[in-house]
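User: Sequence in, structure out. Go.
Assistant: Echoing your sequence, followed by the structure tokens.
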Amino acid sequence: MVRHAMNSNEQSLSRLAIPSEKKNRRRAGPFVLLVIVSLALAVAAAAFFTTQQNDRKPVPSSFTVSATTSKPVAAGDAVLTVSGYVVPRERIEISPKFIGTVKWIGVKKGDRVNQGDIIVRLEDDEYRARVLEAQGRLALAEANLTNAELNLQRQIVLDQNRVESRRALDEARRARDVALAEITVAKGQLALAQTYLDWCTIRAPISGTILEKLVDPNELVTPQSFGGTRGPSTAFVAMADLNDLQVEIDLNEADLSKIHLKQRCRVTPEAYSDKKYNGYVAEIAPEANRSKGTLQVKVQVENPDSYLTPELTAKVELLKDTP
């Protein structure tokens, strides 16, 4: 029985043993995988090398590329096109010369005025009274002068007759000179009072259009600002001559070599692209804007009309000079 059991165990162990063919097969598996990977890498490398060689070969072309030369700019053609803003050549804000109160204002925004037209009146009661006072002082000074002249004539006669001393004659002459000086002072005071009274009537310094109305009747005005946003106004109106317009542009420093003073230009407002205006470079700023790298240039517009509105944009074409 013992022998039979041992035989049975041997048979069981023999069934569990791995055949030698399978052992060899397992040992050969990694080697075969390595060979396959190596072959794949070699094929990929060969394909990449072939592709690189083909890329280096010149590709035949059915057409030829010829060098192009830019067409020279003819006289009258644009050498540079930039955009800017339409501005009046002179914008004037009319301010008071002393603190006062607006009594009447006779213009509004958009009104056309002529030079010398009255546009604002200030309260002038105080200055009329000062004029009357100055006129009275002048009259008194003139009366004193008349009296001093008569007294001097008397002293001259008395001195000739040896009735009065020479000292009395000198005093008469001095009184006459003082009276003359008082006349000059009184005339100056009258002129000053009249000047302030005249300043109460504000007239248009030029012919033009009212751009802004800055005050209303009964409002206090002052020639200088005292800070803050709720102080009295420092101007009555802003006005400009809209027949004298410019286009203000900021020119890049790389384009400065393309412009010069009196260079002819063509101006087109962005709002009316069919309108064209002739112009010329009227001003080139003597100093650039460092932060923006630009230089301000002003182009004077010739014969502007109502289609050119201040503060709207316009295109400026700077033209090549005619020979």
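User: And one key feature?
Assistant: The first strand starts at residue 78 and ends at 88.
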